[in-house]
Design brief:
The structure holds 2 protein chains of 2 kinds.
Chain A lengths: L7 E3 L8 E10 L9 E6 L3 E3 L10 E12 L8 E9 L15
Antiparallel strand pairs in A: 1-4, 2-3, 2-5, 5-6
Chain B lengths: L7 E6 L17 E6 L4 E5 L7 E8 L4 E8 L3 E4 L5 E10 L9 E2 L6 E3 L2 E2 L2 E6 L7 E2 L1
Parallel strand pairs in B: 1-9, 2-11
Antiparallel strand pairs in B: 1-3, 3-6, 4-5, 4-7, 7-8, 7-11, 9-10
The chains are: A mainly beta, B mainly beta.
Chain lengths: 103, 136
């Protein structure tokens, strides 16, 4: 199994008192992040290694990222955004068959 | 003796409070203060004769519950909204001997003021977004 580089994403928490989780949204950089973009729940974690998220290992492009806070009623905040982030979680193919050349 | 109502004024709501819209729930002329629940709101009212203090509560419209805000001997009160949603604010005067005025409500244009003019108002608190993202 290939090994991909850690990408640590961190953000200060929301100041709202009833936040129960955060959500990360990822969108190809050609388009803005919306609430319909691909998303992952973060729980209450504000420092995460996004390389470990399901589905991330296919991403190799420039992306816009957004994080929202979710309250106990399910309401979501506006986005905290960072645009044009290069993400490359696609490991190179392994080298070809290894053979012994000379003794 | 019934104590007179006190006039409610929104002194400062540390939010984006420049927008207003009409809401059919509580009348077409209500002014809405918008902001996030991360910033406190400050209410102000005019002194009630005979009052030795004041009590404040809020009504959360989505959950249809009253929320006790606190009491004060001052004429202002700063409060952080506990959850997102629409809020009506109320204040009543406390007299001696456990006498209370009726509640003065921010949605009652007889006692509520916006920009110095009688007008009903309420506020909406959004969930505040997280801070800036940093990629390491």
């Amino acid at each position: 199994m290939p090994k991909v580089k850690d990408v640590i994403l961190t953000f200060p928490p929301s100041g709202s008192p009833d936040v129960v989780s955060y959500k990360l949204y990822v969108q190809l950089a050609n388009d803005p992040v919306t609430y319909d973009s691909e998303s992952w729940g973060l729980g209450l974690n504000t420092t995460i290694d996004i390389a470990t998220f399901p589905g991330m290992t296919t991403k190799d492009d420039i992306y816009n990222l957004g994080v929202t806070a979710v309250d106990e009623a399910g309401n979501e905040s506006s986005f905290s955004l960072i645009n044009d982030v290069p993400l490359d979680f696609v490991a190179p193919d392994p080298p070809g068959p290894l053979s012994f050349v000379n003794g | 003796m019934v104590m007179p109502k006190v006039r409610l004024v929104l002194l400062a709501i540390l939010l984006q409070c420049s927008l207003a819209f009409a809401d059919p729930l509580i009348g077409v002329n209500n002014y809405t203060y918008f902001g996030t629940t991360a910033e406190p709101v400050t209410l102000q009212w005019i002194v009630s004769s005979g009052a030795v203090g004041y009590e404040l509560r809020a009504y959360h419209h989505e959950q249809q519950i009253y929320i006790w805000m606190g009491s004060t001997t001052e004429l202002t009160f700063t409060y952080q909204l506990p959850k997102s949603g629409h809020y009506t604010f109320m204040v009543r005067a406390v007299g001696t001997g456990d006498k209370f005025s009726t509640w003065s409500e921010s949605t009652d244009p007889v006692v509520a003021i916006v920009d110095g003019q009688p007008r009903a108002w309420w506020s909406y608190g959004y969930v505040a977004p997280p801070g800036p993202i940093v990629i390491e």
